[in-house]
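User: Here's a structure from my thesis project, written as structure tokens. My advisor, Dr. K., wants to see whether a designed sequence matches the one we expressed. Can you design one independently, without my sequence as a hint?
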């Protein structure tokens, strides 16, 4: 009551900016006019034939960005959502995973993994070096030796690395990590955060044997924020069919079933898809 009687707080007027707003942060990146113009259209019915035609083109082309002939899931989300999707589709609480302290985003992905009950073997780092493939090999070889009760693959279910640490530019060599996993003859999934490397640094999901690549729209793709991406290998799809955690919004199967006919299980980010 008293509050209502008080005069409204006056905020100082915002000075008009001259020129064009130019972002000078690691991401989101500046969105080119061509993309802004493409989005500047009415939002169409996401259950109609025009939308299905749009997505047919997108699904046919998006694999090229990741370097994969396999499926790519497009969530209306930020990159964090795509991190979460990678985990809940393939892993379950209590699963061990191997992660590396390469920088800020590796720390955040680890925190997220722990919130889902994953047991994270976290290899400490100084934020100045990428993942050491020799450490990957020795940790996985040790895991196989010490888990005779587990499957031949050992207890570690996934190796999770950030390809490019956005805040520092520290980049890990994904093909060498793949080879290290193979030398240890270990069956762990390889999951890679490509959020700031996708469309910026050479990246080859299929050729490098990555199981889940986690990307999003607002960095190398130079789109606005709002699309979270998962490129998925056959092995990761099989893991998702056999297990994973309870999931609904992030469910790959639900998405794939709907995407097959050109649609989404829920409202997509239509204008970002333009
Ligand atoms: C490497 C990396 N991973 C994950 C994220 C989190 O993505 P988002 O902020 O879109 O949720 C970012 C964001 O900058 C990032 O740079």
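Assistant: Designed independently from the structure alone:
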């Amino acid at each position: 009551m008293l509050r209502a009687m008080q005069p409204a707080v006056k905020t100082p007027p915002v000075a008009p900016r001259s020129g064009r707003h130019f972002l000078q942060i690691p991401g989101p990146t500046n969105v080119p006019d061509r993309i802004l113009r493409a989005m500047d259209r009415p939002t169409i019915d996401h259950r109609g034939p025009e939308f299905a035609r749009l997505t047919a083109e997108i699904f046919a082309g998006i694999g090229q960005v990741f370097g994969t002939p396999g499926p790519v899931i497009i969530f209306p989300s930020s990159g964090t959502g795509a991190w979460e999707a990678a985990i809940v589709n393939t892993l379950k609480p209590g699963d061990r995973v191997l992660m590396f302290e390469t920088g800020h985003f590796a720390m955040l992905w680890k925190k997220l993994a722990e919130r889902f009950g994953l047991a994270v073997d976290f290899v400490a780092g100084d934020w100045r070096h990428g993942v050491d493939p020799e450490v990957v090999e020795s940790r996985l070889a040790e895991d196989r030796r010490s888990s005779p009760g587990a499957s031949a693959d050992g207890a570690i279910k996934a190796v999770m690395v950030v390809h490019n640490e956005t805040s520092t530019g520290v980049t890990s060599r994904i093909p060498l990590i793949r080879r290290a996993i193979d030398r240890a003859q270990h069956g762990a999934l390889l999951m890679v955060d490509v959020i700031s490397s996708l469309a910026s640094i050479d990246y080859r999901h299929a050729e490098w044997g990555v199981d889940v690549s986690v990307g999003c729209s607002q960095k190398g793709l130079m789109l606005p924020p709002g699309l979270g991406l998962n490129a998925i290998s056959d092995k990761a799809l099989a893991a998702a069919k056999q297990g994973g955690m309870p999931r609904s919004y992030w469910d790959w199967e639900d998405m794939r079933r709907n995407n097959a006919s050109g649609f989404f299980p829920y409202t997509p980010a239509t204008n970002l898809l333009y």
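When you compare it with your expressed construct, this may help: The two ends are 48 Å apart (CA to CA).
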